[in-house]
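Forum > Structural Biology > Help requests

Title: Can anyone predict the 3D structure of WG repeat-containing protein?

Hi all, first post here. I have the sequence for WG repeat-containing protein but no way to get a structure on my laptop. I'd be grateful if someone could post the C-alpha cells.
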Amino acid sequence: MQKYFKRYFGLALVFLFTFSGTFIWNSPKVSASAGKYTVSDLDITADNIYSFQNGLVKFQSGSLYGLMDKNGTVKTKPEFTSIGSFKNGCAKVSKGTKFGFADENGTVIVQPQYEDAGDFSEDGLAAVSTNSKWGFINTRGSVVTEPQFDVIYGFQQGFAKVRKDGKYGFVDGHGNIFLDCKYDNAYDFQNGYAAVKLNNSWSLVDTRGNFKAFSFDEIKSPILGLVPVKSGGKWGLSDMDGKIVLEPKYKNIYYLNNNLIKVSSGDKYGLIDKNGRLILDTDYDSITSLGSGFSQIVRSGKCGIVDASGKMVLQPQLDWIDSYKEGKAIITSNGRYGFVNSSGEIKYLSQFDKIYAFSEGLARVQKEKKWGFINSNGDIVIDTIFDNALDFSEGYAAVKKNTGSSGIEDSGDASLIKKYIKWGYIDRLGSTFISYDFDNASSFNDGTAAVLKDNKCSIIKNSDVKLMTALTTKDPLKTWRIKFSKPLDDKTVKNEDDDTVINDIDMTMTDNIKVIDSSGKYVNVSFKLEDPKTIAVSPPYEGYETSQDYTITILNNNKYNIRDKDGSTLKPSIIKIPFSVKN
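Reply #1:
Sure, ran it for you. C-alpha cells for WG repeat-containing protein below:
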C-alpha cells in the first residue's frame, strides 16, 4: 500500500488508525464529464432539491416530497407531506396529519398512521402516538410497547421516562416496562442512576433495579458522581452514600459539562466543580454551553466566555456569541460582526453585514446583499460577488451568481432572473469548479451533489474522492492517528507587511481535516501534530455518541494544504475515512 502511494504521489497516507485502508471506487453512470466530476441527467421532475444525507437526497415535486439515492434512483416517490432528517438510520415521514418512517434505503418501514412520532433511539425504538396515547415501535414497524402513556420523555442512557395518570415510570431499550408508573416524580438516568419519588421518600435506582434510599426533601439523578440533594428549600451535594459534600445553600443545581456544575442563587448563576468548590460566583444572569467545553456567561446583558474548567476566557462584553466551530465562534458587539478564538482573542470585521460559522477554514460573509468568504484570519479570500452561497463542504461550495448584465437581480423580471442568475460550484481558492448552469444546487456529501435545471434533476459526482475502509471503536473518547509517508511541513509563515500569521500547522490541520456525523453535522474535534509524520485527531469534549457513524474528511484544495517538507501535497483532493462508535 505504501509503495503504491509513493509511486504516484510525493506525500501519502501510509498508516491510518492502526492499519492501512483500501480504496473503494464507485463508477457512476455518466452523461456528462468534465475533469474531476461527472454529471448524470435524470428523468426526474422536481421543484426543489436538498442535500444528501445517509446516501439519500430529498426532492420536492409540487407540495410533496420523495427520496432518491446517489445514482438517481427514486427510492421513495414524492407522496409525503414532509420528510424529516435521518436519526439512527430512519427518517420521520408524514401524509397529512399522520406520521410514519422511512429507512436509509428509502424503504417506507412504517406507513403514516400515527398522530405523532419521535425519532428512533440508538436501541432502535421510536415513540408513537395513537388515540392520544404513546407507545413504542421497532424498526420493523412492530409495536413493542402498547400505546398507554400520556407522555414519553425520550431515552437517556438506555431508559425512557414515561408518565401515566400523573405517575412516572421507565421503559428500557427493548420496550419493556422497567419501572411501573407508580412514582410521584422522577428524573432521567444519569451516571447509571435515576432519582425517583414514592410517596414522600426519594431513592436512586440503578440500571438493574436496585434502590438506595436518601433522607432528603428531594434529590436529583447524579451529576459527575455527586447527588444533588435538597433540604430546607436549598440544594447542595452528597456523595453516592448520602454523605454531604456541599451544604445545601443554592436555589438549584444543574449539569453543565464534564467538569462543571451550574448553581443558582436567587435569579443569578455561578459554577462549582465536581468537588463542590466554587469556581465562579453566582453573579451571572445565565450560563449556557457553547460546545467544545466552552460556556457563555451573561451579566448585565453582555456575553463572555469561560472554558471547560471555568477559567475566564473573555469577560462579558459582547452582545451575542454563536457556538464554537473550528476553534472560533461568531460574535456581535455594538452592531459589528466578528469572531473570537479559543484564547478569547477577538477579530472585528465591521465591513460585513453578517458572518456565518466557519466551515473547512472559510466562513460565509454578507455585504450589501452579496456573499463571499473570509479565512481564519478574517481576510477576504473570495470576494463578495455572489447572490447566494452555501457553506463549503468537501472542499467545494455551491454559489449563486449573476451571469448576465448588472442589475438583473434587482430588476424584478422573473424571466431574466431565472435565465441569468444561476448556481454553480467554486473551490476554496475561489476558482470555478462547475460552471453556473443550475436553478438550484445542494452541497457535496460523500462526493455527491444534486442539482436542478429547468425542473429536471441531475446528480454530480466528484471523481477525485477516495474512500478508506470503515473502522469501529467502542471508545467514545478514541483518539485517531493519521500517519503520512514523509514528515509534514510545520513551519509558520507570516505576512511580511504586518507580521500576521497566514499559515501554521494548527491552521492547516483545522482548515483541512474535519469530522462529521451521519446527518452531516460538524463535530468539534481537535488536532495535534504528534510527531513529524503523525496527526492526532482528538474526540469532541463530550465524546462521540455511541451507535453513531462518523466520517473523517481530509481535503487538498486550499492555498495552504497538508504538505511535506519538500512541498508535495496529499492526493487526491478528498480522502474520507468512515468510522463508528459501537456499544
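The two ends are 31 Å apart (CA to CA). The helical segments are 2-8, 414-420, 505-512.
Shout if anything looks off.
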